[in-house]
Amino acid sequence: MRGPRQTPFLGALREKVLSECNHTDEVAVCPSSGGQTATGDAGRVTDAPAPAHTFSQGVRKGNFVQVSGQGPVDPETNEYLYPGDVAAQTTRTLTNVKSIVEASGATFDDVVTLRVYLTKREDFAIMNDAYGAFVLEHTRGDVLPSRTTVFTGLPREEMLVEIDAVAIL
């Protein structure tokens, strides 16, 4: 998996972000967007995979954080992990989501909803067990995030699960 394809538009957009945003290795705070914090190419979260195309890993606007759909990808190599193992893919995917949430300044307790995309209905129980173990381990409060599960095709054949999230600080 590679980062975004560089086009004249993307190159100009990246230069604009770099010139207007205060950024670290993890997040960019863009004054021109009303203080919006964006995790993306200019301030990529290194503990989560690089986005594959022209979108951010996640975006924070005010106290609202939207994490783009994540998959079972190693953040260092951008390789898809655990072919055929939906439990391990679920745990890795949730770890990637958590990294982006935390880079935005939120915690996993701030996650209000998670949307899970599965390729096979028969993987639901296994995913549910792995999901439950992860969420219970990483949620400190009494309220768990809401969740929707959708059965669908995913962009890569080796992906059995994809998860996106919304957090509110």
UniProtKB/TrEMBL annotation:
User: Which GO-annotated molecular functions does the record name?
Assistant: deaminase activity
Q: Mind telling me which GO cellular component terms the entry cites?
A: cytosol
Instruction: Name a Pfam family for this protein.
Output: Ribonuc_L-PSP
Please list which residues make up the signal peptide.
Answer: none
Q: Which domain of life is it from?
A: Bacteria
Protein name, per record: Reactive intermediate/imine deaminase
